Amino acid sequence: MSAPASWLKRLVLGRPFRTDTLGETLLPKWLALPIFASDPLSSVAYATQQILLILSIGGLAYLTLAPWIGLAVAALLTVVVVSYRQVVRAYPTGGGSYEVASKNLGSSAGLVVAAALIVDYIMTVAVSVASGVDNIISAVPALNAYRIGLDIGFIVLLTAMNLRGIRESGRTFAIPTYLFVGGVVLMIVLGITQVLTGHAPVAESAGYGIRPEQVGLTGLALVFLVLRAFSSGCTALTGVEAISNGVPAFRRPKSANAARTMTAMGGIAVVMFGGITALAMITRVRIAENTCDLIGFQGNCVSDPQRTVISQIAAAVFGGDHSVLFYFLQAATALILILAANTAFNGFPSLASILAQDWYLPRQLHTRGDRLAFSNGIIALALVAGVLIFAFDGSTTRLIQLYILGVFTSFTLCQAGMVRHWNHELATATETRQRRTIQRSRLINAVGATLTAIVLVVVMITKFTHGAYLVVIAIPVLWVMMRAIHRHYSDVRKELQADDASELLPSRVQAIVLVSTLHKPSQRAIAFARATRPDTVTAITVNVDDADTRTLQREWEQRGMKIPLKVLESPYREITRPVVAYVENLRRASPRDVVCVYIPEYVVGRWWENILHNQSSLRLKGRLLFEPGVMVTSVPWQLHSTSRRDLQRVRALPGDTRRGITPQRRSSAHRRVKTR
Fold it and tell me: End-to-end alpha-carbon separation of the chain, Å?
């Protein structure tokens, strides 16, 4: 890596961590809560809003249904949290829904869950960041014109923070999470207190009317509206499964700590969601998908944004939109929503690592980076989420339509897998107390599977034409892609298995040295080729300029070079094709021979010098690597610009201190090797 790039990497990421310090990054419960639960905790900031947005389609009269829908969402959230506590205890290795479905329902079902979770994590980043920016704009409307730029900027910031490592980023995220929880609880307590004292808060939009898009909804149409509002409110459940995917990151006892953290998350989320929904009804908040449907809206309905539900409630409870507590809650809400993407930044890389280990994703996603985070997974997630933000103009309303389908797909298959898991456990259990515990756990997961399956059908029907069809397409595409990757890795493994034929020695080794000019690099390449003692050594040059070729031939003869020089004609002034054709002819003439091509290359010390050298050799190597029975050897020549890089940046290796090796001794040893 070049010096500027290395310096920038260290500035952004910090010093690298040794592999044996991985245990030091394990999380206590108070730190795991904001890392893994920031998504479900933050989603209460917009879940109530999504319910009201859908109900407002029918006009003001249908907003009275919001408390009942909110109660149904809270009940479902409780059931799912209790169900996932069983997952955490039964599968502490961190595979979560994917591991449960794979082991109990088969690899195909496991891949469906994996594809759904991948979509879910990507949407978590996009929706959380977009919603956070919405709240910033609610406090500072002038920023509306810079919405997409703010979204992308926050994704870049989150990526850099997560690349620094799970524990360090967790400390950063803990404060905003707890500030948000404290701010919302304070708002709920003050709001309820004001109601009890006879001074109920009133939202700024309480006097607005709503122009209904659908008039006189009854029967099936009304049922459809309610179901659609319920499915939108189920955004409060997003990210609940993240703790089950992150169990290995907890301190011991891992399962117990993860289960307690999940219980705390569920309790806090239900209280906050219920409180915000109640205050939304008390303060008579009005909000609509199309701002121009708000009768009495103050401002330009085409360009001016609506305030979010939580910001309207905060202004009503805290005494106006210029109070300190209003700005405090808006800042905390924006921070927690943006940082809620951290749930995905921790969950997706872990899942991708497991999938890569199982050969369903590229192996590069399995390894940890300098800071012991799964860096490649973090970067991949950020890139895809950024593209989505740009494609949907940073609109939370448009993005959220893609959100819930993947969530409930993984919920349903996971709970169904847990039912089968408990059936297997029950078949081997003999003690009465143990069987009773298993039966209770099976009932919990069966109820969870049934409810989430019903919600999945509701979401599929109500959101399909509003964007969910894209997820319906994306999940099968990801499933097919992961199957193809697995098949490729399996085929490669079979192809590369050791056999007796691979141990046969070649009949001869023919060495070819590529020469363009007779200089020190080409002399070193020739000497190196001869030192390997092949059966034949031939230097070749490609005639792209007659004068240069004749000059090379004269120098060759004058110096009395000990190997022959062969000139390859190239009427079209190409280098790669004549060399490849010559090598192919050698292989055809002697199929059992090995041809070794030696290519002199410059080693430069400045990043921009790479642009000026070695381009022809790179193209040639790239082509020769596809030829069977051909080996390509690069012979480096270090230019003077490399001397300043010497070993000023040599780091100590494991065991150096024990062997008495200091950085100075290692540096001097390296210099001695270079002078030989």
Answer: 25
The answer to whether the CB of 408 falls within 8 A of the CB of 459 is: yes
- DSSP secondary structure of 299-340: S-TTTSPPPPHHHHHHHHHHTSTTSHHHHHHHHHHHHHHHHT
Give the tokens for residue 602: 């410059």
Question: What is the pTM (predicted TM-score) of this model?
Answer: 0.70
Could you tell me the CA-to-CA distances from 441 to 122, 263, 265, 420, 426 in Å, in that order? Answer: 31, 16, 20, 11, 11
Spatial contact of 236 and 225, defined as CB atoms under 8 Å apart: no
Residue 601 host element (H or E): strand 594-603
Q: What's the pLDDT score for residue 655?
A: 46
Alpha-carbon distance of 170 to 185, in angstroms, equals: 22
Among 483, 481, 482, 463, residue whose Cα is nearest residue 472? 463
CA-CA-CA-CA torsion sign (638, 641, 647, 653):
negative
At a CB cut-off of 8 Å and minimum separation 6, what does 519 contact? none
Q: Which DSSP state fits 497? A: -
Give the chain's largest Cα–Cα span: 108
Q: Please write the tens of the pLDDT for every residue from 555-614.
A: 999 988 989 999 999 887 788 889 999 999 998 888 888 999 999 888 877 777 777 766
CB 243 within 8 A of CB 340: no
Residue 605: partners with Cβ closer than 8 Å, 6 or more residues away: 639, 640, 641, 642, 643, 644, 645
Determine the pLDDT at residue 273: 94
Copy the structure tokens of residue 140: 């500072």
Q: Say which residue the tokens 């980043």 belong to.
A: 125
Separation between Cα atoms, residue 363 and residue 354, nearest integer Å? 10
